[in-house]
Amino acid sequence: MKVAWIGLGNMGTPMAANLVRAGHQVVGFDLVEGARARAAGLGVIVATGAAQAVADAEVVFTMLPAGRFVRSALLDPGGVLDHLAPGSVVVDSSTIDIATARELHEQVTARGFRFLDAPVSGGVFGAEAGKLTFMVGGSDETLALVADVIDAMAGRVFHAGGPGSGQSAKLANNMMLAINTAGLAEGAVLAQRLGLDARTFYDIATVSSGDSWPLRNWYPVPGVVETAAVNRDFDGGFAVTLMSKDLGLALQAGRETATDLPLAEQVMGQLASLIELGWGGKDTASLVKLVDGSLGP
Ligand code: NAD
């Protein structure tokens, strides 16, 4: 298919590159020159602006930082919708607030196009490996039209439901991840201070009821899980700022549905402390530093 790609950042570039590898023609645009150059090196045809990128496209993907960027790229005068052929499909794979995702469904379809909210899980490694989990909100028919394209970037594709359901699944999932990671930090420090060997406790917990995805992948004591960011001074991985963004969107969804989320609120405060201490770019498992007190009072 002829694909346009808006937003060639950490996620967008490897995702677009996988589409090129799968044989799709991909024309992309990013505001940042360096991002455009990197994508060009991976076979993406770089356009001079969003308008040029979408001129021939049958499907347009947006992979942008937040809802207001997506709204502006699509709906602003002279933006994507003003240059897209009628009937084309717009897929937003950014993580954005549910209200904006639903509004975009309405506005985009009202103008004669099709729309899916299709956020992803799996991070930059998943994007590079073409193994992202896609959580899709929108109609069956629209998903069927772009299923082959999405498959080239995906390990699993879930049709979560109607408009906004992809974002709903993503935000509820990441809220649980944040809370589980905070719980893991407390469990790991307590086990250590009780004199347990970290590897032994890890082996016990992974086959007991304290098991969790962050336990198995992010255990925050060096030398236990090879891939865990703790072994690299928490560099790389799932940045605190990104988790804070996702948790903020989940808390917003909580307010909009009159749902009390005290645990999420608490972890949000811990993430804010890490950001204040200059740890915003570090992996979220660095929450352990607040529990063991190694970042100071
Ligand atoms: P990023 O900041 O690396 O990339 C975003 C890109 O969008 C930037 O290169 C920026 O220049 C570009 N951009 C902004 N406005 C634009 C516009 N109007 N036109 C063209 N380009 C524009 O961010 P990322 O890590 O690639 O994340 C993108 C989205 O994916 C976010 O919503 C994020 O929450 C979500 N996400 C990220 C990860 C991850 O691990 N990084 C994982 C899952 C989901």
UniProtKB/TrEMBL annotation:
Residues forming the catalytic site: 170
**InterPro entries in alphabetical order:** 6-PGluconate_DH-like_C_sf, 6PGD_dom2, 6PGDH_NADP-bd, HIBADH, HIBADH-like_NADP-bd, HIBADH-related, NAD(P)-bd_dom_sf
6-phosphogluconate dehydrogenase NADP-binding domain location is: 2-161
Q: Which UniProt keywords apply?
A: Branched-chain amino acid catabolism, NAD, Oxidoreductase
What Pfam families does this protein map onto? NAD_binding_11, NAD_binding_2
Query: Residues in domain 3-hydroxyisobutyrate dehydrogenase-like NAD-binding?
Result: 164-290
Specify the domain of life of the species encoding this protein.
Bacteria
SUPFAM superfamilies xrefs: 6-phosphogluconate dehydrogenase C-terminal domain-like, NAD(P)-binding Rossmann-fold domains
Q: What is this protein called?
A: 3-hydroxyisobutyrate dehydrogenase
- Which pathway does the protein contribute to? Amino-acid degradation
Classification via PANTHER family? 3-HYDROXYISOBUTYRATE DEHYDROGENASE, MITOCHONDRIAL, 3-HYDROXYISOBUTYRATE DEHYDROGENASE-RELATED
- EC code: 1.1.1.31
UniProt record similarity statement: Belongs to the HIBADH-related family.
A GO molecular function held by the record: 3-hydroxyisobutyrate dehydrogenase activity
GO terms in the biological process aspect are: branched-chain amino acid catabolic process
